[in-house]
Amino acid sequence: MRDATRVVHAGRSPRPGEPFLAGPVLAAPYVSAGDPSAQAHTYGRTSNPTWTAYEAALGELEGGPTLVFASGMAAVSAVLLGTTRPGDVVVLPSDGYWTMRATARDQLTTRGVEVRSAPTAGGAQGGLLDGASLLWLETPSNPGLDVCDIADLARRAHAAGARVAVDNTTATVLGQTPLALGADYSVCADTKATTGHGDLLLGHVAVGDPDLLAPLAAWRSQVGAVPGPFETWLAHRSLATLDVRLRRSCATALAVAQALAARLDVGDVRHPGVHADAELVARQMRACGPIVSFSLASATAADAFIDALALVLPATSFGGVHSTAERRARWAGDDVAPGWVRFSAGLEDAEDVLADLAQALDAAQHAMAAA
Ligand SMILES: *Cc1c(COP(=O)(O)O)cnc(C)c1O
Question: Going by C-beta distance under 8 Å and a sequence separation of 6 or more, which residues neighbour residue 288?
Fold first, then answer.
């Protein structure tokens, strides 16, 4: 079966007289007596049938058993904190998701785990694997959208005795399947394009070796990083449209990247389909994702551009049905130029999005000329 078919049916096996997707099961305790280990559900921090259905869906797409978490960071933390011990060495992308790096700095180093970092581009993390326990990749990285070779780095990490995790948020499981490329953990913030409606936070971890699941499940119920059943049900409902959404948003993102690259007032246009190693992207990715990053001359120019947008919404996050843009340096944390903009293509008509971006860039130029 092809992706578009798989996402529609994933995790659903309706029987006669039942809905296509059962509604959310809202329960803290379940009726249960006697030996708890013999029962499917006893308490809502340990298991929930709505989680199980969504996890089955993701597991089919990821190619390995999957656990859902309360947010992308809850999923990230389950691997970073739940699978490492004092004395371990973790190799991170220096350009990876800001909160992931802050978590490593504040929570790993203080627990005696050594943290090393190198940029995603060119697979530079591969040079830091001596004695490593965990290699953490993020490709395409957020917000720089650099790409590294997962299969090559996974081979090198395994030879060095390290496990490999890939944060697959920007590509989603339809854009790239880390487990098939040799990763041990595929981690995703489902908050973004995977669910794509900007109405929930959720994350998941899929594992290649089923033995890696139990420690993550224990971590989830011990720290209580559990998702709400309603959000999980919404996520499963949204998953059915992932292929349709991704096709539209990725096509628009590519058109935007190409249009921006042709403008003299826009610099450093970043999109895996435009600035990254084309051979690697073609070999590793089936879709390039909805994000385009680019630089305007200054913070003032970027703010004027964001202010002049009429259709594209000013907002952080990405991968939703609405096109959004933000000046990234308004947050501390990312090492980006003051005029750096992260744009995410939504599901509007591409011509309308392109026209809005063009008129806002023109307005920003006029504002700068007048100043
Ligand atoms: C957003 C994001 C996360 C964190 O997801 P939350 O649901 O906001 O906790 C992790 N990794 C990447 C690459 C992200 O973009």
Answer: 140, 171, 175, 250, 253, 254, 271, 272, 273, 281
Q: Of 353, 341, 342, 249, give the one whose Cα is nearest residue 311.
A: 353
Tokens in use for 192? 């973004």
Contact 44, 179 (CB under 8 A): no
What is d(CA 89, CA 132) in angstroms, rounded to the nearest whole number? Answer: 5
What is the value of pTM for the model shown? 0.97
Mutate to test the pocket of ligand 1, among 97, 98, 136, 166 (most ligand atoms within 8 A of CB): 97
Q: Which amino acid is it at 133?
A: S
Q: Ligand 1: does its nearest atom lie under 6 Å from the Cβ of 76?
A: yes
Q: What is the per-residue pLDDT for 352?
A: 98
Cβ atoms of residues 157 and 136 within 8 Å: no
Q: What is the pLDDT of residue 179?
A: 98
Which residues, 6 or more positions from 60, have their beta carbon under 8 angstroms from its beta carbon? Answer: 6, 10, 11
User: Which of 243, 286, 199, 216 lies closest to 55, judged by CA?
Assistant: 216
Q: Which residues of the chain have pLDDT under 70?
A: none
Cβ–ligand 1 distance for 191 under 6 Å, the answer yes
Query: pLDDT tens-digit profile of 351-367?
Result: 999 999 999 999 999 99
